[in-house]
């Protein structure tokens, strides 16, 4: 028996538009192959929404999001805002607001290296082989949501780094539960030697750790973690961290998987699930048709598994990606200059190869 699901697709800006089309096509193909009924709606967010309505997250999009079983998101952002920090209405506000409004406090970012991409990374293969990390990045607190201030003379600015006990408790429990079904190791990353918000974080994680005596807990400072991640990525299993640290560490960790274009994510919490690549709208390559669509396709796989419980279908998508890589097909970001038998192609050709491997 197939399942009925309502999926909201928010392509957003830049390469978000280009790659999300392939995440959606993969979901459509899975629906046909496994006789599910997926109904798709589209919503706008980010720069495109500001241009159309003046609002980076129009009420209509938020409304559709609340009514959906899952959301497939691309990316937001536009060079115009990056180049002019004085602009008050910004694409990123849309993404932050939808995360907060939907209570998406846990952002899962799996870092899994496909063997075929061992040579694509800037890190040595012997350091990378076997690396498999699951990040739990807190997503609705921290400096992203604390009070922002600018003095009247505009010469002083501050962003409040704020955490409440309950926010740390709920994401810590989720991370520990995940660690239990993996290698039973959890590393909590903070800056408790300096920051009061991190001291609360560490205190709460130490308390929650007592509920999970079967999981080995380690606490690490963010600066050390950033170094250890590239020195010896295999030492990590589950990494639990705050919003800002998780944002930065996972971009770094994308090099373990070969490219930003390979990393998918799932944001979960109080209601619907939200699935997106970890990358942004990538102005430098937007509109050129060369972005890697695999992060969006792998985000669709996470949706099938986490929101719909369709593990077989999710694995089918991952296998199709693996098969595509095994056949030597590569987008520019994961091509190895030293290998002759790679076929370097654009977004649409790569997406089409994955679809072929799904059929
Ligand atoms: N979740 C989101 O919507 C995010 C939005 N942004 C926004 O995106 C805009 C650009 O930000 P950046 O700092 O440049 O980060 P970015 O993640 O967009 O790009 C960083 C680098 O990775 C490359 N890259 C990213 N995705 C790729 C893909 N699928 N295939 C091949 N290469 C890929 C880009 O070409 C660029 O060189 C900004 O406006 C920023 O605010 C940034 C990060 C996350
Ligand atoms: C653009 C930010 C709001 C978000 C970000 O960089 C991320 O979620 O990875
Ligand atoms: Mg980021």
From TrEMBL:
Protein name: 3-isopropylmalate dehydrogenase
Keyword Magnesium recorded: yes
Cofactor(s), names only, from the UniProt record: Mg(2+); Mn(2+)
Biological process according to GO: L-leucine biosynthetic process
Location within or outside the cell: Cytoplasm
Enzyme class: oxidoreductase
Keywords: Amino-acid biosynthesis, Branched-chain amino acid biosynthesis, Cytoplasm, Leucine biosynthesis, Magnesium, Manganese, Metal-binding, NAD, Oxidoreductase
Family: Belongs to the isocitrate and isopropylmalate dehydrogenases family. LeuB type 1 subfamily.
């Amino acid at each position: 028996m197939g399942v009925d699901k309502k999926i909201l697709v928010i392509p957003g800006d830049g390469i978000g538009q280009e790659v999300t089309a392939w995440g959606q096509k993969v979901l459509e193909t899975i629906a046909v192959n496994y006789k599910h009924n997926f109904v798709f709606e589209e919503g706008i967010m980010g720069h495109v929404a500001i241009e159309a309505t003046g609002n980076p997250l129009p009420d209509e999009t938020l409304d559709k999001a609340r009514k959906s079983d899952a959301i497939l998101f691309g990316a937001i952002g536009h060079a115009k805002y990056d180049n002019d920090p004085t602009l008050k209405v910004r694409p990123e506000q849309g993404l932050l607001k939808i995360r907060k409004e939907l209570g998406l406090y846990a952002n899962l970012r799996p870092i899994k290296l496909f063997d075929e991409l061992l040579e694509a990374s800037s890190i040595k293969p012997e350091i990378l082989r076997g690396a498999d990390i699951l990040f739990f990045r807190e997503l609705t607190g921290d400096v992203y949501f604390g009070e922002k201030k600018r003095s009247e003379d505009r010469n002083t600015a501050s962003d409040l780094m704020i955490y409440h006990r309950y926010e740390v408790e709920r994401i810590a429990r989720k991370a520990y539960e995940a660690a239990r079904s993996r290698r039973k190791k959890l590393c909590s990353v903070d800056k408790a030697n300096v920051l009061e918000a991190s001291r609360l974080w560490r205190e709460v994680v130490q308390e929650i750790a007592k509920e999970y005596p079967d999981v080995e807990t380690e606490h690490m400072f963010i600066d050390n973690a950033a170094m250890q991640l590239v020195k010896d990525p295999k030492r990590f299993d589950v990494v639990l961290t705050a919003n800002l640290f998780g944002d930065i560490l996972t971009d770094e960790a994308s090099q373990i998987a070969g490219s930003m274009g390979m990393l998918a994510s799932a944001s979960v919490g109080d209601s619907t699930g939200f699935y997106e690549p970890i990358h942004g709208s990538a102005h430098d390559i937007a509109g050129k048709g060369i972005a890697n669509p695999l992060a969006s396709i792998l985000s669709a796989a996470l949706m099938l598994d986490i929101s719909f419980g369709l593990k077989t279908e999710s694995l089918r998508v991952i296998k199709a990606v693996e098969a595509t890589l095994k056949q030597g097909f590569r987008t520019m970001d994961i091509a190895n200059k030293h290998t002759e038998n790679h076929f370097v192609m654009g977004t649409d050709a790569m997406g089409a190869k994955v679809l072929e491997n799904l059929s």
